Amino acid sequence: MLHAKTIISCAVTGGSTQKEKCPALPITPEEIAEDVYRVWQSGAAIVHLHMRDENAKATLDPDRFQKTVELIRAHKDCDVIINCTSSSANTGMGHEARMAHFRRIPEIEIGSMDCGSFNYGCRYLFNNEPQFLEDLARCFQECGVLPEVEIFDTGMIGNVKHYLKQGLIQGPVWCQLVMNILGGCDATVDNLLHLVRQLPEGAIWSCTGIGASHLPMMYAALALGGHVRVGLEDNIFYEYGKLATNVQLVERAVRVVKEFGNQPATCAEAREILGLKPLVR
Q1: pTM higher than 0.85 for the full model?
Q2: What's the CA gap between 10 and 81, in Å, rounded?
Q3: Which of 16, 44, 147, 229 has the least CB density, counted as fewest CB within 10 Å?
């Protein structure tokens, strides 16, 4: 019997998770690269990267991205797929600064494309205005980067379909459904099913649930035929009152995927599923 392949992504750091609340959070390029290596060994096929500055604040400094990527690729056995953020949340950086690392670093294979703006957690404007998204899509085309379309609510799917029609992104589109952010979709099975039903034809999708919705959304994604994302960007607890590490979250995802009857996709299998070129050393 052939088992379905499930891509496990790990969002290792994020831009908002606080080191003070999560001691295992990697901050420096060295810490992030080492954590990436460990989660790859544990079964993650994709790592989603944000950078932090010397004060642990979110930054899009291309030097930090480049150093981190170089340290990851210094592990010659590590073929993990590198996916970098374009989010300016908590950075205040302009359009070009949000794309500089993609233009500089050819090893980046996937880039996040948050397809819309909203009041993130009722704390700040998560700003992804139309001109930026068009510029970003063209940047990805020029650099050979696969967009990871991040979906926080139903209206963003309409934007994705618009950019597909305009030829700014190509199908089959890779979608990351992010559930349980205040201002976006609540993490319920009904909401996830609704989002999945609205996706463009042939879309390949993954889901993550923020905070306490982490496990319920993993189970629901598997039941609906999707892939899964875990990591300290999204959830800092392994269970109630017990802090997690990225490795623990990936190891649990591997067990859940296998118990469900699937197999975690290798990096080579994930590249094939997503239409990425094989990794060349």
Answers
A1: yes
A2: 10
A3: 16
